[in-house]
Amino acid sequence: MTPFHAIAIFAAGIVAGTINTVVGSGTLFTFPVLLGFGYPPVVANVSNTVGLVPGSATGALGYRRELAGQRGRVLTLACASVIGGIIGAVLLLSLPASAFKDIVPAFIAIALVLIIIQPRLSALLAKHRPHGRDRPGPFVLLGVLVGGVYGGYFGAAQGIMVLAILSLSLDDELQRLNAVKVILTGLVNLVSGIVFIFAAHVAWGAAGLIAAGSLLGGVIGARYGRRLSPTALRVVIVVVGITAIVRLLA
Fold first, then answer.
1. Exposure of 77 by Cβ count < 10 A (0-12 exposed, 13-18 middle, 19+ buried)?
2. Three-class DSSP labels, the chain
3. Residue 131 backbone zone (phi > 0: left; psi -120 to 50: alpha; other: beta)
4. 182-191: average pLDDT
5. pLDDT value of residue 163
6. How far is C-alpha 204 from the geometric centre of its chain's CA atoms?
7. How far apart are CA 214 and CA 192, in angstroms?
8. Does pTM top 0.90 for this prediction?
9. For the chain, what is the radius of gyration of the CA atoms?
10. Each residue of 132-153: pLDDT tens digit?
């Protein structure tokens, strides 16, 4: 690994940690960088997942005020996320690498569509959010479980998916729901990362650089991320995502 590669991966980790805390699509920054530097797709995904865990921890700490009073809700949803994350990780390791290369471009494309339509989706969810429902029901548990499977397998825009499910199902402020999202997606990364550590090949140099960057990015995201221009952020994410699709299909 050259010094330039190391700096680029560390910087991508900072961006990913920040974006995961604010929106939830940081993988679309780190994954293409690892692909561009020659890491095989599955190794890049595994190393990326392991590296992003510290950023979720610092992001959750930054949202501790919004998490106040949500312990019961978080514990209930966390069980679904953990189960889903383990299933997704097992699927990644069980299916052939060629399947990952075939499936992931479609996942990235879906993630990019979610990012593009996010403003309209948020407005729609705000209109149809059920009033007075503050406890997770079967729909939200199933949705979080599916989000966990997706996150354990790949994870790009998992946060957007989970936040949409929470917003549609629970009557609460968006920032409080976003704080729950940070916890849930972080748990998916954690449990799938543990599976990968014991059962897959992790590029520890890259994972360590992403971890260091995401640790700093989580702090930045929780403190300053809300000041970013949503439009500019979406443009950058879409460009990076399209680059990843082209790289995978090449």
1. buried
2. CCHHHHHHHHHHHHHHHHHHHHCCCCHHHHHHHHHHCCCCHHHHHHHHHHHCHHHHHHHHHHCHHHHCCCHHHHHHHHHHHHHHHHHHHHHHHHCCHHHHHHHHHHHHHHHHHHHHHHHHHHHHHHHHCCCCCCCCCHHHHHHHHHHHHHHHHCCCCHHHHHHHHHHHHCCCCHHHHHHHHHHHHHHHHHHHHHHHHHHCCCCHHHHHHHHHHHHHHHHHHHHHHHHCCHHHHHHHHHHHHHHHHHHHHC
3. beta
4. 92
5. 78
6. 20
7. 17
8. no
9. 17
10. 556 667 788 898 999 899 999 9
Distance CA 24, CA 39 (A): 23
| Cα separation values, 69 from 90, 133, 134, 145, Å | 33, 15, 11, 23
- Look at the block and give the residue holding tokens 């260091």: 212
Long-range contacts of 244-248 (CB under 8 A, 24+ apart): 244/28, 244/31, 244/32, 244/35, 244/108, 245/105, 245/108, 245/109, 247/32, 247/35, 247/36, 248/35, 248/41, 248/101, 248/104, 248/105, 248/108
Tell me the pLDDT band of 105, cut-offs 50, 70 and 90.
confident
